[in-house]
Structure formats: structure tokens, C-alpha cells
User: What shape does this take?
Amino acid sequence: QVQLVESGGGSVQAGASLRLSCAASGRTFSSYNMGWFRQAPGKEREFVARISSGLNRYYTDSVKGRFTISRHNAKNTVYLQMNSLKPEDTAVYYCAARRQNYGPEDYWGQGTQVTVSS
Assistant: This one.
């Protein structure tokens, strides 16, 4: 069982930066593929970024060049650095973990709110 706890959300103005953190329990963190997802009001949850156990990184098009995903395996933590934030980035951001390279996520965090005002 893996528990994920997000932090770092908040309310900022457009153009600002935030760094989200996701702390994971367990001894096998380094073997998991970690991801960030978000859900805006009235919309479905969508993929934002992923970092594999082998440190390959993937991003949805709307955040490329602005967001950076990273991980610190010794701290069991994955980060999402968000720069040049836009109002359309407003959402609840969720951390997720997946053992396999493909398929559904195995574990989810509780989410952290990010609000960007214009």
C-alpha cells in the first residue's frame, strides 16, 4: 500500500509560480511511475505530467515549457514546478503512482487546490 500526500497548492495571480510536492509512503517509491493530474470545476480529471522510474518525462501540451516534473527518490517525493501560471491552470491537482509503464494508476492522493486569478 502506498499513501500519497500533496502539498504546495494555493491562490496566485497569473504569471506566478508554485511548486507542488507529493510525499509517498513505502520503501519502493523509486520503482513507481509518478504522475500529476488535475480536475477543474465541471471537467473531467486530466493528465498533466509523468515521470517514470527511469526518469523519462511526459507532459500534456498545454503545460509544456511551463511545468517541470521531478522526483527525489531518497525523499520519496515527486514535485511539479509550475511557472507562468494561467487562469486555465486552476484546478485540484492530484498525485498518482503506477507500478506498470501503462494502464490505470494504482494509488491517488487527496488533491491540492491551485487557483490562478487574472
Q: What stands out?
A: The two ends are 40 Å apart (CA to CA).
